[in-house]
Amino acid sequence: MLHFAPVTIADKETIQAFFDKSTFRNCDFSFSNIFSWEHYYNTTFVVHDDQFIYIRFQVEGDVPGYLFPLGEGDLKTAMERLMEDAEARNDEFRLYAITPEMFDLIEKAMPGQFAYEKERAWYEYIYSSQDLIHLIGKKYQPKRNHINKFKRSYQWEYLPITREIIPDCIKLYERWCAENGGCNTEQSLIEERIATQKAFANYEKLGLKGGALRINGEILAYSYGQPLTADTFGVHAEKCLSEIDGGFTMMNQQFAEHNCADYLYINREEDLGLESLRQAKMSYHPVILLEKGFVKKL
Q: For residues 128-167, b (16+ Cβ closer than 10 Å) or e, as one string?
């Protein structure tokens, strides 16, 4: 049995070293995501023989599984170690957040031993950074209209998120919570609140990059994230009060311009199976709809 340990902020350098060598663009290989949400997923990890990192967690409350093993050793050996670990724990072996590219690698290493099932709610939306910065063409006309109306309606400025304005960002989050019925009742909002608090408390240590809109003298929108690969930036959070007409569109465009211009792609993560969120993400015309699912033994 592998000896997994909880993920702490002190583990960033160890875990990030494996992520830095990865070319997978999915948001699951983001240390800030893993750390901020470890309370919800009960995320643990182990580095074995300095070759592979194994990450174990739980989905839907108590269903255990693993991420794709990252490393430079033999993938078949890594998969066998994870299967042995699952068997020792009396767990059904599952790998989660698996893309078709990952499954192809698994099939090549161990052909015909696994089934792959895709889950639409886990698909990630990846955009051209230049598309989101410039919003050129007829398909982006509605977005440009929102931005032009925003600029006519408000006095505003874009600010990088620093320790000095984080308290104002937290105040905005509290206002957003109140606007959405409070963040102390619905479980998903409780978990998100904890993740948000952890992200802001460890903002610099996590290496997060973010921006905020000061609108009529107040911070009323923010967004933050971190690079996922050399060519892809991951947006982990975005908040704006609904009363700000065009606020989300403006926040999206300004964040892309100021924080993501050096990257080819911007990953705005999953839609969680929410139809309204799916429509909003599709309205920005992703260039990659990154399929994900889970792998189990046949």
A: bbebbbebeeeebeebeebbeebeeebebebbebeeebbe
